[in-house]
Structures are given as structure tokens and as C-alpha cells.
Fold:
Amino acid sequence: MNEKRVRGLSIPTGLENAPHKDITDYLFSNGNRLLTATGADLALPEDTQSLIAYFSNGEVIISRTHRYDGRVLALLELLAAQNRTARTPFYSDLGLVSGIYKAYAANLGGGVSKSRLDYDNQMQKDFVDIIGRAAAQKVSDIHIEVADQTTIYFRLDGSMRAVLEYNSAWGESFVRAAFASSDISNTNYAQNEYQSAQKDGRTPLRGTKDLYLPDGIIGIRMQFNPIAFGSRYVAMRLLYDNPTEGIKTEQEFGEYEQRLLMRLRSFPTGMTVVAGPTSSGKSTTLVRNMSMMLKERNYEINLITVEDPAEQKIFGAHQMPVVNTYNEEQREEKFTEALAAALRSDPDTLMVGEIRTLSAAQLTVKGALSGHNVWTTLHANSAMAALTRLLDMGVEGFKLKDETMMRGLVSMRLFKKLCPYCRERLADQQDHPSYKRVLDAFGEIGLAQVYVRGAGCEQCKGLGTIGRIKAGEIIITDSTFLTLALAGDTGRAIKYWLENLGGRTLKESATELMLAGVIGAGELERWVGLLDQPGVY
Ligand SMILES: [Zn+2]
Structure:
């Protein structure tokens, strides 16, 4: 241990066996401050506060039975990382540790006046209330914009709608309360910085004893951004415990894609990468395929997932979360650590939430090379681009060239489905921007089958669309395809895939949906480009 950081004992000899009250009085004497108290420098979540206490003079008090608890070790690591003074810990029973926090709350208050606490608590109640309202509507994301006034938007089936308006002072307090309620932040709230935080639904909001996220919400992820012409812009993703909530009206792939996915699931080894931009449905695709694989194999496989955070429960899987992270850098480190641990835990199948770093990519590839069936997601625009992205991250081409390793490349988008009650025929709308392109591409017969979004009706609550549907492209590789693609010959690789492997592009899948009247011409062109242009790779 670093000598510089350790200066003597936390509790002097002789006081060790004294009554708790005497020890507590000693600890709080001479202006010594409890830095792990709620609202203090190193505020810990409520559940960790009963395990460890850390004071400004370097005293560390730890519950004896929790000396190897991850939460305790994480704080000790953090103290070391921040080069803070830490005395030799005093190991005691839980009663002393929680007594310390009780004494803090009762006597010292840390300069926080009663009225201030009440006020914060009210804002936290508002925070829970708004999440509750969103959850009741199965909203996927809440956006809060604080400017001259505060506007709260709910995203439902991909569309944003302004639902609430308040003044800007309320917004400022609301955003602060949201940040203060989260689990992750040992950093202080900073108005002009990009900050992220998350709140686990299983523990009370930080600084409260009995205020929890609404039922059915297992957590929320929050991103705090500064904005021009305003003060703050916050995006919150709601994580539901029932995976179909929040995406309730999301329709799965068609039969053709389902068949290919089943083939990918049946391979005993190798890697499948699901690519797509944010909110393209890639993580629900991953989770759904893992659930189906477990079922298909009669739950007789060891399926381990590494996710940050786990978004949906997968029955029958071992889901390993990324724990005890205090900042972004540490998160990536811990993610790699969890992934390495998963590989050492005898998995048959491994699901890696999302590959963001080279070290995570290398471990994932290693898993596939060493005889596991591995599924992961990547932020990339097409199936081909997923391969390029792995190369760009630094994964060596020779590792990706083996078709028993690099099995599948999947890419997708979520398209809004037209309301069947109020959709309108494109043929009747000669001035619609897509009219001429559809006519040129599919002729009169094609045109007659295509619909566009109508004005909205009672059935679709005036939106013109109801729910969304997945469409995508799936490449099951072979060695010729991989050789062409990894040599950078994308055009020939695509041609080979389409002609020799029976491939079907995202644009083709989406066109089929358009010609069936399921999605509108405008929606198709929005996601896959204009109909008279070739697809983009
Ligand atoms: Zn309608």
C-alpha cells in the first residue's frame, strides 16, 4: 500500500471497544467531516452508506462483514485513485457504520438547512412523478429542455411530443434534482459540462429513504448536455422490466429475416454483429435472439451477458452488469473487466451489450475464436459498415477473415407503420415529393399499391402512424465474401453477397413493406435514401 496515503489508525487503540456513541463523538470532533454523507464530496448511495464511512481526516470505518464487498472496494479504489489520505480502516459491525450516518443526519446536517432538504425532496418527487406519467404511456425517452421556459418531451414510437411546460427556474431545479438522485455521480453537477448518470430502480433515490422509481421501471439512463440559447438539455432513457413495454408496438422482422437469424443462432461458434444507429432496435433484436436461443436449446446452455447497464431481463441468462463506476473512463475499464470475467466463467454463448472500445472488441473476437457463440451490437450504419468499423477500431483483418469466426452481419432500422384507417393512396397525390420516383421505379401498378401518411384519425390519435416495424439486411458470410470485404472491395463484396449468397438489402426489405402498404413512401426514403438513388454502403 502507498505509505503516503496511510497515516495511522482510523480509531486509536483503547477506543476500539468503546461504546458506539463515544466512537462517533470522536470521529465528528474537531470539525472532522463525513465525506461520504449524502450531499458531501464523495456522497455514497444509500445502500452503500451502511457499509463504509470516510472522513476528511482520513478515517475509514468499514462493516466487518462487508470488507470484500464490491461497493466497499470501489470506494477504497477511488480514494487511492484520487490520492486521498486514508488511514488503516477500522472494521466494525454494521451498527456503528449506520450510527455514524444517523449521527450526521441528526446533529450536523453538513450545513444543509431543513428547508433546503424539503425543497430538494419535492423536486425529487416531481422527478418520480414525471417518470411515472411517461411510464404509464410506455414512453421510451423523456427529453427536457431548459431555456426561456422548460419544455418536457416524451418520445413514443419514435416520435417526440411536447407534453409539459414550466418556467425555467423550475427546470433548473428539476434537472439538478434528477442529477442528485442518480447513483453514479461522485462528480458535482456542472451546468456547462456534458455529464451522464444513471439510476437503478432497486435502490431509493440518492438522498431519500423511500423514494423509488415508479413500478415497472428497472432503471433510467440520463445524459446532461449544455445547449446554446438555453441552459440545459437532458435526455433520459427509461428501462422497463418487461422488455416489450416502451417498445410495445414494435413489430419484429419478417419471415425471411427470421429464417436467417435462426440459422445464425444455430451455429455453435462464431460471432454475429448487430449494427444500427441509436434507437434502431438493435438491442431489442439482440435480447430477443438470446431469449429464442435459450428456448431453442431447452435452457441447457450457459448464456452470459455483459451489459452496461442491463436493459431487459432475459429469462435463463446470467446477466453481468458493469458495477461501481464513477466516471466514463472507469466505465469502459470495468466493462472490459466484466467481459474478461464472463469469458472465464465457462459460457456457451456470450452476449456483449455494445462494443465501444478496442479492448472490448478484442475480447469479444477472442470469445468467438475460442469456440463460443458470440452476439454483440455496434454503432454502424449498415451490415458492411460493421465490418469496417471493427477494422477501424483496430481489430486485425486476419481474425475477421475466418467465416467460422465472423458469421453474421445484421443491420436494421425501425420504420413507422402507417395507420391503416387513415393512410392515403400515393396515386391520388401527384404533388407528393415521392410520387414521381415511385412511378419511375415501380410503374403504375407499383404506384397503386403505395400509401402515404394521412391526416390522422381517432384510431391513431391524430398521428397518422401506429407503432413501428423492423426491416433490415442480414449477411451470413462465407470466405469469398469476407476476403472481398476485408480487402476493401465493398462494391464487389456486395455484388457477390446479392448474387451468390441470395442477399437482400435493407432498401429491398423496406421496399417490400412499402409496396404492401405497411410503411409510407416518405418514411422509406427518409431512412434508406431516395428511390431513384442506389443504396448507400
Ligand atoms: Zn389514423
DSSP finds 17 helices and 19 strands in the chain. The chain has four domains: 20-108, 117-240, 244-412+473-504, 420-463+505-537.
